[in-house]
Design a protein that fits this description.
about 40% strand, 3 domains, mainly beta, Immunoglobulin-like, binds copper (II) ion, binds CU-O-CU linkage
C-alpha cells in the first residue's frame, strides 16, 4: 500500500499495459567498499518561514531550511543520507537529480521505494562517482513538494580539477509557493570576490520554468552542463544563456580589476559578484548556443554509432493532458532495454511550452538538434532543454539496470502526464 506517488511514481501504469517489470529495484544496492563515508541527516518538516521581503510562507523544509542544507562531498566518497519525516502526511523521498546510482537509492515514491511517512526513516547510500553540480529533491508528489521547498544543492568536488579557480559559489533558483528565490532570497545574493580572481559559479535551476541568465561585467566560459565538463569551452562576452528546469550550468568568471559582475536572471534575481561600481546596463546580449560551443573531443566520437533500439518521443499535449506520443503517464508503455544496449531517443517538442526532458540514473549524449549533428564539444546531460518545434537525438547507453523515470522537469507537466518509464528486462 501507500503507493500514492501519483504523477511520479507508480508502477500501476506499467502494470495496466501488461508490461509489469520482472525486475525490482530493492535488490540493487551499492557494493560494499572501503571508501570514506560521508554521512548526513535530512529531516523533512512543515514550518512557517519569513522571507527576506517580509512575506510569510508555509513551507516544507529539510533541516528547517529551503533550499535544504548544501551537501558537499568529494568524488569517490560513499554518501549516506538518513532521511526522516517529521510531519508530512503524504510521505517524502529524496531523489538525487543527475546522479547515476543504484536504482533502489533513486528515491522515486511508488517505483524504487515507498514514501517515508511521518515518524519513519530511510537511509540512502551511493558512491559519488562523478564530480559535478547536482541537486536533490523530494520525488513524492514532486510538483507539490518541490514548490513547497523540499530541495537542496548537491556538489561533488573533483579529486583533481580540470579547470583552475580561486573560489567557487553555488546559486540555486527555486520557485517557493510562487515566489522566485535565489539561495532563499527574493532579491538575490552578494558574493565577495577580489579583483583578478577566477571564480567558479555553479548555477542550478530548481524552478519549473526556463531561466534566461545574463552575465554583465566579465568575460566567462561555460565549463560544464549538468555536471559534465565541456571540451575546450571558449570565452564568452555579453552572452545570455538559458538554463532549463532541472539543469545546471557551471561558469568560470574572471573578476574585473575594478567593479562588479552582475549575473541576472530574467525573473529578476541577481548575483552581484565583487564590489565597486555596477557595470553599465546593456541590452545587446548574444544567445549562447550549446550545440556548437567548444571543440569536438577526439576521445568521444559518435559518428559511427549503431543502435540496438530507437524510439521517438513526441512531447506535446492533448486538451489539458501533457502527453508523450499522445498518451499520458498511465497509458505510455515503458521502453524496455537490456543491459549493454545502445538506445537512441528522438525527442520532439510538439508544443505546450518548454519541455526539459529528464532521464533518471543515466547520462545521455546529445547527437543532434533539428537534424544537425553537434559540432562543438560533446554534451552529456541528464536534462535536455527542448523548445517548441525542436527535435533532438540523444544516445543512452543502457548501463544501469533498474526501473527509471523519464519525464518533463516542468514538474507541473510531469504531473499532467508527461512521464514514462525506462525499464530493464
Ligand atoms: Cu529531478 Cu524525476 O526528477
Ligand atoms: Cu513539459
Amino acid at each position: 500500500g501507500g503507493m500514492n506517488g501519483h504523477e511520479h511514481g507508480t508502477v500501476h501504469g506499467a502494470t495496466s499495459t501488461g508490461l509489469q517489470p520482472s525486475l525490482s529495484c530493492e535488490a540493487i544496492i551499492a557494493k560494499a567498499g572501503e571508501e570514506p563515508v560521508h554521512e548526513i541527516q535530512l529531516t523533512a518538516a512543515q514550518q512557517v518561514t519569513k522571507l527576506d521581503n517580509g512575506q510569510i510562507e508555509e513551507v516544507w523544509a529539510f533541516n528547517s531550511l529551503t533550499p535544504g542544507p548544501e551537501i558537499r562531498v568529494t568524488e569517490g566518497e560513499r554518501v549516506r543520507v538518513v532521511l526522516k519525516n517529521t510531519d508530512i502526511q503524504e510521505g517524502v523521498t529524496v531523489h538525487w537529480h543527475g546522479i547515476v546510482l543504484p536504482c533502489s537509492q533513486d528515491g522515486v515514491a511508488g517505483v524504487t521505494q515507498e514514501a517515508v511517512k511521518p515518524g519513519e526513516q530511510f537511509t540512502y547510500e551511493f558512491i559519488a562517482d562523478h564530480p559535478g553540480t547536482y541537486w536533490y529533491h523530494s520525488h513524492q508528489a514532486s510538483s507539490v513538494q518541490v514548490e513547497k521547498g523540499l530541495l537542496g544543492k548537491l556538489i561533488i568536488e573533483p579529486l583533481t580539477n580540470r579547470f583552475e579557480y580561486d573560489q567557487e559559489e553555488t546559486v540555486l533558483i527555486q520557485e517557493l509557493n510562487g515566489t522566485m528565490l535565489m539561495n532563499g532570497s527574493t532579491q538575490g545574493v552578494d558574493i565577495q570576490a577580489s579583483p583578478g580572481q577566477t571564480l567558479r559559479l555553479r548555477m542550478i535551476n530548481a524552478a519549473n520554468e526556463t531561466e534566461m541568465i545574463r552575465v554583465n561585467g566579465a568575460t566567462f566560459r561555460i565549463i560544464a552542463m549538468d555536471g559534465h565538463d565541456l571540451h575546450e569551452p571558449e570565452m564568452l562576452e555579453h552572452h545570455q544563456f538559458q538554463v532549463a528546469a532541472g539543469q545546471r550550468y557551471d561558469l568560470l568568471l574572471q573578476m574585473p580589476r575594478q567593479g562588479k559582475v552582475i549575473v541576472e536572471s530574467e525573473s529578476g534575481l541577481k548575483a552581484a559578484l565583487g564590489s565597486g561600481n555596477d557595470p553599465e546596463p546593456r541590452s545587446d546580449y548574444t544567445l549562447f548556443s550549446w550545440t556548437d560551443y567548444g571543440t569536438p573531443d577526439p576521445l568521444a566520437p559518435v559518428e559511427n554509432l549503431t543502435f540496438d533500439q530507437s524510439h521517438t518521443l513526441e512531447l506535446g499535449q492533448n486538451l489539458f493532458v501533457k502527453s508523450i506520443n499522445g498518451k499520458s503517464f498511465h497509458e505510455i508503455p515503458p521502453i524496455v532495454v537490456k543491459e549493454g544496449q545502445r538506445v537512441k531517443l528522438t525527442i520532439i517538442n510538439e508544443g505546450g511550452g518548454d519541455h526539459p526532458f529528464h532521464l533518471h540514473g543515466h547520462i545521455f549524449q546529445v547527437l543532434s538538434r533539428n537534424g544537425q549533428p553537434l559540432s562543438g564539444s560533446p554534451v552529456f546531460l541528464d536534462t535536455l532543454a527542448t523548445q517548441e518545434g525542436e527535435t533532438y537525438e540523444v544516445y543512452v547507453k543502457a548501463d544501469n539496470p533498474g526501473l527509471w523515470m523519464m519525464h518533463c522537469h516542468n514538474l507541473m507537466h510531469a504531473s499532467m502526464g508527461m512521464s514514462m518509464m525506462f525499464n530493464y528486462e
